[in-house]
Design brief:
The complex is a heterodimer. Chain A is of the alpha/beta class. Chain A is built from twelve helices and 13 strands. Chain B is built from eleven helices and no strands. Classes of the chains: A alpha/beta, B mainly alpha.
Chain lengths: 298, 273
C-alpha cells in the first residue's frame, strides 16, 4: 500500500525524478525496474523521508512516512546494505533496531534464524561481512518490526544463486500473506521471476507500469512465415507496426489480428505466438532505449 | 461430491486477506535516548574511548601520588589531574556520536526508524550531557579515592579544598567543551574533519591567541570579547564576574550557538546518503 503521486526531485537544473506516479498494492510484489541512475533509489529515498521531494507526495498505508508513529512496525526498509557502522556486530545492529521499534528481545534471534546468520557470524563486526551477509542482515533489520510493507533497493546484489532463490521465496511468501513489497532492481531476470506488477523507470520518468502479464503481452506478436516481406507489408498496410526478424515478423497487433491480415494477404503462417519469448528484457531495453539515446545526444 | 461443490468450497484466491490494522504507539523519547546511549559505547572506538578516559583518570591519580610533594596532595590536585584527559577526550565522544551517522552511513537506518531528525539529534545531545555528567562524577570519585589513598600513604592530612562552586565551574566548562564537540560533529558530519578541527580549537587556537595577545596591545584588550576558548579555559579557575559571564555569552553565541544553529538547520534538510 504505497502511493506515489507526481513525485519530482530536481538538483539544480537536473531532474532526477520527474512526476513519478505509481502504486504498490497489498498482497503483490511490485518490481521497480530501471537502468542505473534512472531514479529508482532517489524515489525510494524520498518515500522514506531521507531525501526531501521538490514536489509531489508519497504515502505508505495512507500516511506520509514521517507521520507513521513507529515506522519500523509498518514498513521495513533496506536501501543500502553497506550503510552500517562497520564497527558494530550484526547482532548489535539488529538489537538497536529491535529496541528502537520496541519489539521483544527474542525477535533478534528469530530474525537471525530467518536470514540464516549463525551465532558466530552475527557476533562478527560488519566490516568483515561479505555483501551477501550484509544483504541478509539488512533484510533481518527490515523485517524486525513485523511490518506490512517492505521496500527493498537492489536486495539481490551480492547474493549467491541459492541466496537469490531464498530471497525470492521469502518475498513471495511475504506478499502471499498479504504484505506489500516494492522491490527495485536492474537485474531483469530477478524481477521477472518474482514480481506481480511492474513499474519501469528511465531517466526519472515512468515509461511503463502495469501487471507483469499485461506488460509482457504488450510486447506484441511474433508471426513466422516464409514470405516475411509480404506479411510485413500487409501488417503495415493494416496500420500495425512490423519488424522483420529471422524467419518471421514482430508486430504490435495481437495474434487474432495477425491471423486475419495473413489470411487476407494470402500469406501462409508457419508460427503464430505472443512475442513474450523475448521476455521482459527486450521490453526493458526497448522502453529505455529512447532515454538512453537522448542521454548520448545531450 | 460434485465437481461444483469443490469449486464453491475453495474460492479461487491466492491472497490472504489484508492484515488487521493496528495503531502503533509512537516511539517514546526515552527509547530513542536509550538507543543513542547504547550506540555511544557499542563500537570499538566508543568503547575504547570510554576505557581510555577511565584509565587516564586512574593513571593521573597514580601520577599525582607518585610525583607530587606531600603538601600538594590535595583534592584540588587530584580532581584537576583527572579532569585534564576527560576534558580533552569527552568532546571526541560527542563528535563521534553525531558523525557516525554520516561517516559510517548508519543514519540511513537511524533516520528511517525515527523519521524525525530533530528527535534523534536531541536524544544525542541528551546522551552527551548525561555521559558528560556521569564521567565527571566518576572523575571526582576517582579523585576522592586518590586523595584518601595518597594522603594516608604519605602520612599527611587529607585536604578537601574543592568547593561546590569550583566543581560547578569545572563541570560547566567541561560541558561546554562537549557541546563544542557536538557542534563540530553537526556542522562537519565527518569524523576525521571534526576531530582535527576540535584539536586545532583546543591546542592551536589558544597558543596563537596568546602569542597575538602578547604582541598586540589591542588584541590583549579585545581577547576576552573575541576568544571563546580563552573564556572557556578561564572557567576552570572560577570566580567569574558579571563581565566575565557577558564575555562568555558573547563569544559563546558567535563561536558555539551560531554554528550549532546553522549545522542543525542543515542536518534537518540535508539528504542522508
Amino acid at each position: 500500500m504505497i502511493h506515489v503521486d507526481a513525485l519530482t526531485k530536481t538538483y539544480g537544473g537536473f531532474t532526477a525524478v520527474d512526476h513519478v506516479t505509481f502504486s504498490a498494492e497489498a498482497g503483490r510484489v511490485t518490481g521497480f525496474l530501471g537502468p542505473n541512475g534512472a531514479g529508482k533509489s532517489t524515489t525510494m529515498r524520498i518515500l522514506v523521508g531521507l531525501t526531501p521531494a521538490s514536489s509531489g507526495t508519497a504515502t505508505v498505508l495512507g500516511r506520509r512516512y514521517a507521520d507513521l508513529p513507529n515506522p519500523g512496525r509498518e514498513i521495513g526498509v533496506l536501501l543500502d546494505a553497506s550503510a552500517q557502522h562497520a564497527g558494530r556486530t550484526g547482532r548489535e545492529i539488529l538489537t538497536l533496531a529491535q529496541r528502537t521499534t520496541r519489539m521483544p528481545k527474542e525477535r533478534v534471534d528469530e530474525m537471525l534464524d530467518l536470514v540464516s546468520l549463525t551465532p558466530e557470524e552475527s557476533g562478527r563486526r560488519v566490516r568483515d561481512y561479505s555483501l551477501g551477509m550484509r544483504q541478509r542482515l539488512g533484510i533481518a533489520t527490515a523485517l524486525i518490526g513485523d511490518p506490512e510493507v517492505l521496500v527493498l533497493d537492489e536486495p539481490a546484489n551480492g547474493l549467491d544463486p541459492a541466496g537469490i532463490r531464498w530471497m525470492r521465496d521469502l518475498l513471495r511468501g511475504y506478499a502471499d500473506r498479504g504484505g506489500t513489497v516494492l522491490l527495485s532492481s536492474h537485474l531483469l531476470h530477478e524481477i521477472e521471476v518474482v514480481a506481480d506488477d511492474l513499474v519501469v523507470i528511465g531517466n526519472g520518468q515512468i515509461v511503463a507500469s502495469g501487471t507483469k502479464g499485461d506488460l509482457l503481452a504488450s510486447a506484441g506478436t511474433y508471426a513466422g512465415a516464409t514470405d516475411t516481406a509480404t506479411l510485413a507489408a500487409a501488417l503495415t498496410a493494416a496500420g500495425h507496426s512490423s519488424q522483420l526478424s529471422p524467419g518471421g515478423v514482430r508486430t504490435d497487433a495481437d495474434t487474432a489480428e495477425v491471423g486475419r491480415v495473413a489470411l487476407a494477404a494470402g500469406v501462409p503462417l508457419t508460427e503464430l505466438r505472443p512475442a513474450d519469448g523475448a521476455g521482459l528484457e527486450e521490453m526493458f531495453l526497448e522502453l529505455t532505449a529512447d532515454n538512453a539515446r537522448e542521454d548520448v545526444a545531450a | 461430491m460434485s465437481h461444483t461443490a469443490v469449486i464453491d468450497a475453495a474460492p479461487v484466491t491466492d491472497r490472504a486477506p489484508a492484515r488487521e490494522r493496528v495503531e502503533h504507539e509512537p516511539i517514546p523519547f526515552r527509547t530513542v535516548v536509550g538507543v543513542e546511549l547504547r550506540k555511544m559505547f557499542d563500537t570499538r572506538s566508543g568503547f575504547w574511548l570510554m576505557i581510555g578516559i577511565v584509565a587516564a583518570g586512574v593513571l593521573a591519580t597514580a601520577a599525582v601520588i607518585a610525583f607530587s610533594s606531600s603538601s600538594d596532595l590535595t583534592y584540588d590536585s587530584f580532581a584537576g589531574a583527572i579532569g585534564v584527559p576527560m576534558t580533552i577526550l569527552l568532546p571526541v565522544l560527542a563528535i563521534l556520536s553525531v558523525t557516525g551517522e554520516w561517516s559510517q552511513r548508519a543514519g540511513l537506518t537511524t533516520f528511517t526508524l525515527v523519521p524525525h531528525r530533530g528527535r534523534v539529534i536531541r536524544a544525542k545531545m541528551t546522551v552527551t550531557v548525561l555521559v558528560g555528567l556521569a564521567s565527571m562524577a566518576l572523575a571526582l570519585g576517582i579523585g576522592a579515592v586518590g586523595n584518601l589513598v595518597g594522603t594516608s600513604l604519605m602520612g599527611v592530612d587529607t585536604v578537601w579544598n574543592l568547593s561546590p562552586t569550583a566543581i560547578a565551574y569545572i563541570v560547566g566548562a567541561d560541558l561546554i567543551g562537549m557541546v563544542v564537540g557536538f557542534m563540530l560533529g553537526v556542522v562537519m558530519r565527518n569524523s576525521a574533519a571534526a576531530i582535527v578541527t576540535y584539536f586545532t580549537y583546543w591546542f592551536v587556537v589558544p597558543t596563537l591567541s596568546m602569542v597575538l595577545a602578547a604582541n598586540q596591545a589591542w588584541f590583549e584588550k579585545a581577547q576576552p570579547w573575541l576568544d571563546f576558548s580563552f573564556n572557556q579555559s578561564r572557567m576552570y579557575d572560577g570566580g567569574f564576574t558579571g563581565q566575565d559571564w557577558a564575555q562568555l555569552a558573547v563569544t559563546g553565541s558567535v563561536w558555539l550557538a551560531l554554528p550549532l544553529a546553522f549545522g542543525l538547520w542543515r542536518v534537518m534538510r540535508a539528504e542522508v546518503k
